[in-house]
Amino acid sequence: MKTLILFLFLGLGEFVFAQDEPYFPDMRSWNIHNSDTADRYIFADTALVRVSPDTKQAPADTLFAGDNITVTGVMPNALTIRGLKGPWLKIRYTKNGEVRNGYVWQGLISCDPLRRGDVKFVVGIERRADSISGTGKYKDTTKRFLVKIKVVKQGAILAKTTFITYDDESANFCYGKVMSGMGLSNVQNMINITFSGEACGISSYHNYFAFTKSEQLVRFPIKENVSDAGAFAHTESFIFPNEKDGKPDMVIWKMVNEEATEKEDKNGNQIYKVTDKKSIIYTWDGVSEKISGPANK
Fold it and tell me: Which residues contact 198 (CB under 8 A, 6 or more apart)?
């Protein structure tokens, strides 16, 4: 009897959680939960704000790329646009000095909000971009996403660029970092946009872009890191000109592969042995705003 009661309790708990926290796999990278408030930007060039979580009524307001919003709730109502299925969000924002509330579809807002001074780096997922391999009944679909970066300053979009995520497993989370120009000629900022599975054996991909003084976004080599505790570790790193051992207008890529051994150090930590190491130098041309190096690592 006790076992039956416990089973019913756990089942009811899962049902309540499912009711409170709708799950939309396409929207994992935004890292927005129903119980949180989250500050974000508007990602779409133009986003229509609704008075209810649907498109039945005329828009109540209009927001633009880079506008600040705060997400205050996740609705169970779903909408599919450009292959992305996601919920409506309840938001709070300020317009013309007035605090307002409304609803927007999640695909219209940014992932991790990034800025440096009055320049915002607005990152969001534009659409599904699946790749298909094989033929006939042996076709295999890899779920992928087209990501767009918009540089916005005082409401104006200065630059845009896109890239595609490696796969679905490595798109559980999205987060970013805005750095200085890292010593590279004519570069205002380096931006790192990371898509990660954050689980053992699933890679994290770090996508680097230079935002130049001529207001262009230039793609840099990608960096991958993956490990499985007690088994192996694959680590890639960059050395920029303003860092230790850095060289003028060069980016040094380093890779180390390690395997776990049965030995432990004095603190009881497993000792790893290096099985492979590589190093590649990429050259940055700050005049033509191009980075060059080997076609493949």
Answer: 172, 173, 204
Taking a C-beta distance cutoff of 8 angstroms, is the pair 66, 122 a contact? yes
* The two three-digit tokens of residue 176, written as one number: 């970013």
Nearest of 145, 8, 4, 165 to residue 84 by alpha carbon? 145
Write the CA distances from 176 to 191, 196, 276, integer angstroms.
Answer: 7, 11, 29
Alpha carbon distance 193, 205 (integer Å)? 8
Token match 């935002």: residue? 211
Residue 216: burial class (beta carbons within 10 Å; 0-12, 13-18, 19+): middle
Measured CA to CA in angstroms, residue 125 lies from 147, 150, 273 at distances of 4, 11, 39
- Report how far residue 83's alpha carbon sits from residue 35's, in angstroms, rounded to the nearest whole number: 26
Query: Which residues are bridge partners to 235 per DSSP?
Result: 256
**203 Cα distance to chain centroid:** 13
pLDDT tens, position by position, 244-271: 999 999 999 999 999 999 999 999 889 9
Residues 6 or more apart in contact with residue 166 via CB below 8 angstroms: 144, 195, 203, 205
pTM for this model (two decimals): 0.89
Do the bridges between strand 270-285 and strand 250-264 make them parallel or antiparallel, or are there none, so unpaired?
antiparallel
The neighbour count for residue 232, using CB atoms within 10 Å, is 15
- Torsional sign, CA 151, 248, 193, 83: positive
Q: At residue 32, what is the residue type?
A: I
Condensed to tens digits (0 to 9), the pLDDT of residues 1-19 reads: 444 444 334 444 444 444 4
